[in-house]
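Hey L., structure's done. Input below.
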Amino acid sequence: MISVDFIIRVIYAETDMMGRVYYGRYYEYFEAARSHLLREIGLPYSEIEKAGFYLPVIESHCEYKNPATFEDELTIRTMFKNMPRSTLRVEYEVLKDNTIVAIGHTVHTFVNHDGKAVRPPTTFRKALEDHWNEE
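Output:
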């Protein structure tokens, strides 16, 4: 398993009329945290693209447990719990202090420059193996 925390502070523009973080923003938080995790393991998404690979989202899900509001500091815990095969599932926990705000996941497939489904690149699998922790 690989788990990396990413911290973000809620800005006013991310809230709705009720003063809560707008539900669609959580997917933006997921994306920012996923990009952070890839950078942390030495695979910035820009480098993956330069190598001719892309990771389109083919499934996404979010469950909202508790509200987040303007100025809250949120920790987005991003996890790879399984090694990728033809797809990569990324799990997310959004926390405010120790309270779960939201949980979710995205599923990605690997495609080449032509949009054809491919196996995960060797460099991707190697980076995951190098950072993998059994927990």
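The chain has one domain: 2-131. The radius of gyration is 16 Å.

-- N.
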